[in-house]
Amino acid sequence: AMTRTLVMDNGAHAIKAGYADDSESGRTIPNSITAGRGDRRSFVGDQLEDCKDYSGLYFRLPFERGYLTNWDVEKDVWDRVFSKQVLKCVPSEVSLMITEPCFNPPNIQQTYDEMVFEEYGFEAYHRSIAPKLCQYANVSEENPPSECMIVVDSGYSFTHIVPFCEGKPIQSAIKRINLGGKLLTNHLKEVVSFRYWNMMDETYLMNEIKEQCCYVTQNISVDFSISKSQTPENSILQRYVLPDFSTKKQKMQASQYDIRPHNQDSNDAPLSEDDQVLNMNNERFTIPEILFHPSDIGI
């Protein structure tokens, strides 16, 4: 029988994993162990979907400043990822393709090797930086990879700019910017807490709001002028109805997040006086703009 290959992008915020021969097997799983304020249990990886109260979550993360340092947490998450409940992986019958950060120190690389072979017993494995795999994203016989390219990989803690020549990264030219999704979420927390509600303890919720509402503007001056206009002319304004965990005990799925556009559709349930509404206006495009102009916040 042919050995299956499991491809695992082991990110600092989430693990994206699936089998190379089955495009339907892909899963995105939080790379963390989470403790809820209302739930007296810990949630490993995708178990977070079972959480009933997302307010004030406490995260234990395997990565620190972009590097894998807490292997106790990572082993628990990997155990969950490889389990029958998630990817149904039998390591002795599977080859593993895993990503690692750029400039990963040799001592951390050695721990990767020991975990993969000694702890899990994979049949074979290969480590690669994530940008190198991006070269093959849309490759086919008619569309071979380019001889030269630049990959911009914006992750949780860092953004790397990696030039490639004939498939190999030019190590001396790789640039790293200490800017990623975590910083955008934290900055959005501060902006929202200053302007509207105190959300400094709501990292999970603010990250969801960032992913649901924010976008990269094509013309910032035009969008600024639209965001200054009153409704209904303001097409940028969205009302994000914050979940009320005290009365709504059912879990909030991603598809259930209650986002109202500026001109609220009549088929939506009308807002009640008890609803806490977060108005997302120019925050929707000014937060992602930090990726292109880090000096705006002093980086």
Automatic annotation (TrEMBL):
<dbReference type="Pfam" id="PF00022">
    <property type="entry name" value="Actin"/>
</dbReference>
<comment type="similarity">
    <text>Belongs to the actin family. ARP6 subfamily.</text>
</comment>
<dbReference type="GO" id="GO:0005737">
    <property type="term" value="C:cytoplasm"/>
</dbReference>
<feature type="region of interest" description="Disordered">
    <location>
        <begin position="253"/>
        <end position="272"/>
    </location>
</feature>
<dbReference type="InterPro" id="IPR043129">
    <property type="entry name" value="ATPase_NBD"/>
</dbReference>
<keyword id="KW-0963">Cytoplasm</keyword>
<comment type="subunit">
    <text>Component of the SWR1 chromatin remodeling complex.</text>
</comment>
<comment type="function">
    <text>Component of the SWR1 complex which mediates the ATP-dependent exchange of histone H2A for the H2A variant HZT1 leading to transcriptional regulation of selected genes by chromatin remodeling. Involved in chromosome stability.</text>
</comment>
<protein>
    <recommendedName>
        <fullName>Actin-like protein ARP6</fullName>
    </recommendedName>
</protein>
<dbReference type="InterPro" id="IPR004000">
    <property type="entry name" value="Actin"/>
</dbReference>
<dbReference type="GO" id="GO:0005634">
    <property type="term" value="C:nucleus"/>
</dbReference>
